[in-house]
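User: Show me an example of a complex going from sequences to structure tokens.

Assistant: Sure. Here are the input components:
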Amino acid sequence: MEVRNRNLLAKAEPDTVVTNNVQSEKDGKSGISRMWDSLAPKWKNWWVRAVFAFTMIAIFVLTIQLGPFGLSLLVFLVQLKAIQEIVSISYQKYIQQNLPQNLPLFRSLNWYFVFVVSYYSYGLTIQHLFDEFDDRSHINQLFKSYHLFISFFLYMVGFIVFVLTLKKGFYKIQFKLYGWAHLAIMLFMTLGHFILQSVVSSIYWFILPICTVICNDIFAYIFGFFLGRTPLISLSPKKTWEGFIGGMVVTILFVFFFSAYLAQFPTMVCPISSQVSAFPYTLNCTPSDVFTPTYYTLSQLDTGVYLYPCQLHALVFAVFGSLIAPFGGFFASGFKRAFKLKDFDDLIPGHGGVIDRFDCQFLMASFVYVYMITFLPQTDLEKLTRMLLDLPTEDQLLIHSRLSSNLNSLGLL
Amino acid sequence: MEVRNRNLLAKAEPDTVVTNNVQSEKDGKSGISRMWDSLAPKWKNWWVRAVFAFTMIAIFVLTIQLGPFGLSLLVFLVQLKAIQEIVSISYQKYIQQNLPQNLPLFRSLNWYFVFVVSYYSYGLTIQHLFDEFDDRSHINQLFKSYHLFISFFLYMVGFIVFVLTLKKGFYKIQFKLYGWAHLAIMLFMTLGHFILQSVVSSIYWFILPICTVICNDIFAYIFGFFLGRTPLISLSPKKTWEGFIGGMVVTILFVFFFSAYLAQFPTMVCPISSQVSAFPYTLNCTPSDVFTPTYYTLSQLDTGVYLYPCQLHALVFAVFGSLIAPFGGFFASGFKRAFKLKDFDDLIPGHGGVIDRFDCQFLMASFVYVYMITFLPQTDLEKLTRMLLDLPTEDQLLIHSRLSSNLNSLGLL
């Protein structure tokens, strides 16, 4: 309804538009600029959103070429930005009250905690990368063996500094900022960890869910924009049932075919382990069962069909991505209303901040993590071997004899 | 100074005391009751604290007799109480504003999240206990295989209900309560997990740190009470340098000898694995190296001494427990001041709530967890074996051949 009215309005008042154009020409503006000025605000927003949606997709596709390292860096940067967006909301209130000047280490301490938790969650991975170059470096080994201890020690330093810089009259503010920052750090660091687990297992399980949510976001927006008339939830007045259902139908269809398409590329489906690759990212392996076409018989129709098993998993993602993941968006909308924000930030024109854009991705990522662990568990045999060979020899002998007797009983030794 | 003044006051005004006594006799009070009434408030507090300190120690010692199961239950109850204490602070403010009547599922949702996280962190352990009785029960296996998935699903139900019950005008309150509850749940559930890891490895590493902090608490209080005159930190005006240092000296001495004493009992030092034991708790094993007296040569003195290696680890705990763990207490004090609370609760007369009593224990527990993982890692060979035998046979064969070649190269096969 709104769309039509706006269009009618633009057509019904040609004089105004012409006047605007004349005005524009006087300002020395080009044709495109004039066309832009004559657009209704809703269409302007549509174009800005579209252009920046394609820009983001382009960045994403380019980053994929960089392989797991590039993707991890992208995830890390998104994490940092998300934390910053949440933390700065808590600052805003106190900055307005002119308090921060009096608060010691107001911002530094929060960023110190971000650093400590980043060191904890990324440090080991980065150190494993160093192994590629120098397996026996003493300092690297030291950092690896004492990784948790160092992280804890660094955190304790921050904790003690926090307690020592507590200032009378500011206790409540300081504790609130501390709690707020910790919630943001824990939330986004955990989510980042989930996401990276998928990257490590294979890029396929990282890209597919992201594309699922992107597809659902885009088509829910398009269906809502052109057909939307029934409001879905009071938290997000712009969201409609038409968008919700249209997005879901397209997403399910898209994911069913896209999952099969992606499964053909070794770069997508091969596990990464700890290999570092040059640009462009390449990888080769025998694809696992889940990426091998399998004949499914449809007993009732007395016929069958070839499918990649991963297509069936992908359908589960499509349903979650269009049915449950939007609640991540509703949650974010409610949060923005609670703290009277339009957007979390204005980083991406037409889309808002990182959290505005990725709100549903975060929920999706947790689901994928849980789903993969439950239904597609992967054992990192290299890591397991390393662990076993690090055991005391008597433990190794015990494990060896137990494995031998099991394999003997199966007639495999 | 304060102590003396109060005593002087009591002695200098005998008339008042006598008058009080006469008053008491008229009320028909007994001799002890009269003595109690005549005590200065500080001494009353001292006696209440002492009696309930001993009560708590008694409960603790009795629970030890119940073995790991009883201790886990105790830890769980303490966790629940601590979460309740924090969560109810956030309620208090809104209850005063008469808002909660209008808020749907005000408390239920928070307790639902507590339930979900408890199920997640304790569920697997409890299901392993069931294995003792029936290893092949289908439903139990189902719950075990899908544990993470079920937990996630349960959490999502709570999350969606939260979003759907968001009520206009209450957004900010609802999000604040949600965040507050999540901080409390995550904090205490993580700490509980740390503590239980020590219980499982052996009761020794659970009891020793707890006794370290208890010892430090008691002697810091006693030294502060009798000798304290130099204030330590403005957050806790009752704490003094004399108490801090006195507590530390006694704790280091106590822990050095107590750690050797405890190391003699198999019940203390044997790993628990998944055994369930009857009351009273018994266990037998060959103690590991850390619990076996070792000869340490002191090269400079040209002599040596027999020590349990665990005594040296215990000294590290003593230093942390008396130097760093008190910051947990300062943090809690600051928090109470920030939210204008005297105590977190009045559960334990003279001591306050569970958090008041265990503030330093929580910090100690995290340290012990990190320390154990770093310096005294234990491999659960049973769990490792189970994991290996669950692998696909080709993976088992691969692992077997790698183990064989390693043991061959060491000349052990």
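The lines above are the inputs; the final block is the predicted structure for all two components together. The beta strands of chain B are 231-233, 236-240, 294-298, 303-307.
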